[in-house]
Design brief:
Helix 2 packs across helix 5 and helix 3 runs parallel beside helix 4. The longest helix has 22 residues. A 6-stranded parallel beta sheet has the order 3-2-1-4-5-6, sandwiched between helices. The chain has a single domain, classed as Glycogen Phosphorylase B (Rossmann fold, 3-Layer(aba) Sandwich). By secondary structure, the protein is of the alpha/beta class. The mean pLDDT is 93. It is 53% helix and 14% strand.
């Protein structure tokens, strides 16, 4: 679905609009459900540490974070949203100017074509899950980046980390480690990006949900035979 979407003219037009808007800047992208397990405060603190330790990047990099609202009627989630707005406001106040801010935080979902264009635009995809079953964002980003060789920063606590091993694996509780990973991702040369990206793309494109379902059903068919042999 994502491989087909990148070829659409409407997606290409959205991508061109975004390229003009963020011309001359490196773009880091985060896409998460607004949930405690996604580690969004950790993500902001890690990016802040990066700016503190690498001031030469101030004004040269933009962090776009999409936080899709979740359980908006629950007080704890309302407090999480408030906390994130406060963190983002403080960082933007510290490192921004009257016309530019380092973090663009969107507290809403985006349509599919805009999402694909964002995946195509981003030089880096940034994931700091504290506990995640798989994390499909990492797969979607890789599937949308065939011609760009983007860099994936991925939490070791996301299930995808055990399969997408050539991404930059980080501990979301270690801000200094995150800061180094962001700097490494932004300064990585093209040969190294290609070396890391190709295994990711090969894995994502050959291990689809269809392949998983077929292998699972094959295993179920084999089980009765194994039981008979064991008897």
């Amino acid at each position: 679905m994502f491989e087909d979407a990148v070829k659409r003219q409407s997606v290409k037009e959205k991508l061109n609009e975004m390229k003009k808007r963020f011309s001359g800047k490196k773009v880091i992208l985060g896409v998460d459900r607004l949930d405690f397990i996604k580690g969004l405060p950790n993500k902001m603190y890690g990016f802040e540490a990066f700016l503190e330790q690498n001031p030469e990047w101030i004004g040269e990099v933009t962090f776009l974070q999409i936080a899709v609202p979740s359980r908006t009627d629950v007080l704890e989630y309302q407090n999480l949203s408030k906390e994130l707005h406060e963190i983002v406001g403080r960082i933007n106040g510290k490192y921004g100017t009257l016309t530019e801010v380092p973090i663009h935080y969107l507290d809403q979902s985006v349509n599919f074509e805009t999402l694909v264009a964002l995946y195509m635009l981003a030089d880096v995809c940034y994931i700091t899950s504290l506990h995640d079953g798989m994390n499909l964002v990492s797969y979607e980003y890789i599937a949308s980046q065939k011609d760009r060789n983007g860099v994936l920063i991925l939490s070791e606590f996301a299930g995808a980390a055990q399969f997408l091993e050539s991404s930059l694996i980080i501990n979301p509780w270690d801000s200094d480690m995150i800061a180094k990973a962001i700097n490494d991702a932004l300064t990585m040369d093209l040969p190294e990006r290609k070396r890391r990206f190709q295994p990711l793309y090969d894995y994502v494109t050959t291990h689809s949900s269809t392949v998983w379902a077929e292998s699972f059903l094959d295993s179920l068919e084999v089980m009765p035979q194994r039981k008979k042999q064991s008897k």
